[in-house]
Write a structure and sequence with these properties.
By secondary structure, the protein is α+β, with helices and mostly antiparallel strands. It has five helices and 15 strands. It has three domains: about 80 residues, no CATH class; about 60 residues, no CATH class; about 100 residues, no CATH class. The relative contact order is 0.10.
């Protein structure tokens, strides 16, 4: 699931400006890339131009970007270029690393110990775009509560967090993926996912999805959707309309306040 975890106002504008993606306090990012960054994920491959690093001028650099909180609570911008050689994490065996690099394994589960000695379950994947291993804390993977009107069981949510395929009754299959900008792959081109927030459901449409691993393209029925999909799509549209109607009085009040100066 893609859920915003950072605020746009907290973006490291100075770092973004250094890579040509901000100027005079204004972002020069596509909406999709901004959404991915604020969700704590990696963007797609970007062309960064006219860079300066350690006194060197770099005409251009193809890289992905992500954000990471630093010890004082601010956000740092991480640049993920294309590496010539993949650096194998110490907790992977040569055989495990080879399986990931060759695509023989989608991901590998491991249990490691953090800096304070506590055990942590992680998921390791390989990003072929940057030639880099990606490590994800399973505890930070948010599984949807519902997809296309069908609630996921505890077992299905656990499978999702472990990077395994989760098949629903309507034929939709989903799988978590840290290497994908959507954070998820599916045998369908689109689906409606929901999470429970403050006792209510928050709907999100995922579309333009990549096929499941091991499949070069979607099947012919990838754009055939269930009744639950269309019912949740209607609920999502109603939710968006209600939100818009609630915001209108606030905007009108703000305009009135600006004209009068006080109330």
């Amino acid at each position: 699931m893609i859920q915003q975890i950072y605020d746009e106002q907290d973006l490291p504008l100075e770092d973004l400006q250094k890579v040509g993606l901000a100027k005079d306090g204004r972002l020069n990012l596509k909406d999709d890339d901004l959404t991915v960054l604020l969700a704590g994920r990696r963007t797609g491959m970007l062309r960064l131009e006219n860079l300066f690093s350690d006194g060197l001028h770099i005409p251009y650099l193809d890289a992905k970007l992500s954000l990471k909180p630093n010890p004082i609570g601010d956000l740092d911008l991480l640049v993920h270029p294309i590496y010539k050689l993949a650096e194998k994490p110490s907790f992977l065996t040569d055989g495990e690393a080879e399986k990931l690099e060759k695509g023989d394994a989608v991901n590998i589960e491991k249990m490691i110990f953090d800096d304070e000695g506590y055990p942590k379950d992680i998921l390791v994947e390989f990003d072929k775009d940057t030639n880099e291993f990606i490590v994800t804390d399973q505890a930070r993977i948010l599984a949807p509560d519902r997809v296309n009107g069908e609630y996921l069981s505890l077992d299905q949510k656990e499978r999702y967090r472990k990077g395994k395929e989760v098949k629903l009754e309507d034929g939709t299959t989903i799988q978590y993926s840290a290497t994908d900008t959507n954070g998820i792959r599916s045998n369908k081109l689109a689906f409606i996912a929901s999470v429970l927030i403050d006792g209510g459901l928050s709907f999100a449409l995922y579309h333009g999805l990549n096929a499941l691993f091991g499949q070069k393209k979607h099947n012919e029925d990838a754009d055939v959707y269930s009744k639950g999909y269309y019912e949740d799509l209607e609920k999502m549209q109603e939710q968006a309309q209600d939100k818009k109607q609630r915001q209108e009085p606030e905007k009108e009040y703000a305009r009135s306040y600006t004209r009068t100066g006080s109330r």
